Amino acid sequence: MTDLGWIGLIRHGESTGNIARERAEAEGLDVIEIAERDADVPLSPRGEEHGRAVGRWLTSLPADQRPDVIVCSPYQRTLATAWLATREIDYQPVQVVDERLRDRELGVLDLLTVHGVAKQYPGELARMRRLGKFYHRPPGGESWADVALRLRSLLSDLERDHPGERVLLFAHEVTAYLLRYLLEGVPEKDLLAVARSTVVANGSLTSWTRADAEFRLVHEHSVEHLGEMEEPTVEVPIRPSTWRATRSRTWRRTG
User: Fold this and answer.
1) Is the model's pTM score more than 0.85?
2) Which band of pLDDT confidence, cut at 50, 70 and 90, is reported for residue 248?
3) Which terminus of the chain is more solvent-facing, meaning fewer CB atoms within 10 Å of its CB: N or C?
4) CATH 3.40.50.2300 is right for the domain spanning 6-106+144-229
């Protein structure tokens, strides 16, 4: 049995929540004004165009480069992005919704800006600074390590059921970072440095291919496939990894 051959991640298109968060942070507000629960936040009109642009890109790919399996977070903004994208394509990949791809749960810090966290939960902010982003778990929420655990489970299931296939995920910003940890074995310190220095844009593509039994980064949050909507980013050349992979090596289809 061969292992999974290629894996890609599309971050959902711009959501109304993204817009509200940026406005609240820019205005120094404590609370982000979002009426819906996180799972129900919809795409903005621009986010809908992100989804269609992803679909046009998928249609433009040669048949042997198209994803065989699409796995989507159950959140409305990811489901809508995937739905708009798949409306554009002329073939039928396996399509699965899996809750393990959901966004990180923030617990008591949900809907708070950086200013709001500092004002309402100064003790929690101090604890977060001491523990670091990877291991800090807000009350009622998840740490990055918690999200990595469920992603590791998903990868194990997918690899077992789709050996040698091309899998495209529709998910969230934190997923893109943590897949680098799981697939490439990027250590915590380096991963957080990457997160501080890069942006996972809405609609962007992060992808890996397997070579010599290792996953190697091909696209690093690229927006080139979005055309005129975004400035293109540089494609990362395939290169040997200096990190030892920590991921599991089995997968299973869900749904």
Assistant:
1) yes
2) very low
3) N
4) no
